[in-house]
């Protein structure tokens, strides 16, 4: 097992969409990382999330490796997070969830661990992450927890971070319940600011503002406004810095759903925004729910089941098997025992 921190000025440029070069400016007090798979070794021999090759034969040149994470936050306690941010009424619903775990999905699972709880409140709680939809479990050697919209990871001795759910190998899919989502746009990624650029911190807000609109296809989609709604890590940070940590960089342009002209989507590293013209609402799609459905093969839409059939996550959950895994050689260093049992 190996944890590879990025250089002090961010992530090295790469063609892998999972580890696209991004960095939160220093004021955000966050460090992007790459968590590599179990028994990791330097590329290209690191075990990959790939079910096509026998154990030990996976190739990280062609198959993304490990869990990419972004936005490390070092608050270890809920009280420390609230002291930094101030205790205001916007967190009321999230605090009620932590106190009572009442209602809907919240009654099934709890936000586990003081540091996860601190991050949950700090990053917008239910509105941004959704309700927890799993217990904490180990994936590729790291403790994680799934929420309806996001996945958190605990990096020992460093802090809590988000995994880039929508940036590449974990959720590359473009058809979900017959909604047509945008794929990662390689040309857009190529145009994104590089962490090696001397003016990186200045270019990122301009890039976001140029590609994340509030109006698209003649509709008030409000994507930039939603991006800006992320809560700053501290009073020293602006809303675009906070949005970068919460959403990451845009990895597609806004796209219109060809099956429903009232739906508009935009993909980011951490999630997919959706605008519904019928209701006028904008928010994140439940990618965490979909990943859980892939892992458990429960409540899985037919089109997503077909797209994810070759994923090492697909139908892996087997509570009666050792480690809760149907095919453990595809997910080394992973334990799903009771991960989804209430």
Summarize this, please?
This protein has 342 residues and is α+β, with helices and mostly antiparallel strands.
**Helicity, as a percent range:** 10-25%
Shape verdict: globular
- Count helical runs: 10
Q: What's the number of domains?
A: 2
Low-confidence spans: pLDDT under 50, at least 5 residues?
A: 1-67, 84-90, 100-106
In words, what does this structure look like?
The protein is α+β, with helices and mostly antiparallel strands and 342 residues long. It has 2 domains: 3-163, no CATH class; 175-287, no CATH class. The chain is 23% helix and 17% strand. It has helices spanning 78-85, 92-100, 114-122, 125-129, 186-191, 200-211, 223-228, 239-247, 287-296, 302-307; strands at 3-5, 33-35, 67-73, 132-139, 142-147, 151-155, 159-163, 175-176, 179-180, 255-256, 263-267, 272-276, 281-284. The strands form 3 sheets. It has a 7-stranded antiparallel sheet. Strands 10-11-12-13 form a 4-stranded antiparallel sheet, with no helix packed on it. Strand 5 (142-147) and strand 6 form a beta hairpin. Helix 1 runs parallel beside helix 3. The longest helix is centred in the middle third of the chain and has 12 residues, at 200-211. The chain is globular. The model is unreliable at 1-67, 84-90 and 100-106 (pLDDT under 50).
Write the layout of secondary structure elements.
Blueprint: E1 3-5, E2 33-35, E3 67-73, H1 78-85, H2 92-100, H3 114-122, H4 125-129, E4 132-139, E5 142-147, E6 151-155, E7 159-163, E8 175-176, E9 179-180, H5 186-191, H6 200-211, H7 223-228, H8 239-247, E10 255-256, E11 263-267, E12 272-276, E13 281-284, H9 287-296, H10 302-307
Antiparallel strand pairs: 1-2, 2-3, 3-7, 4-5, 5-6, 6-7, 8-9, 10-11, 11-12, 12-13
Helix pairs in contact: 1-3
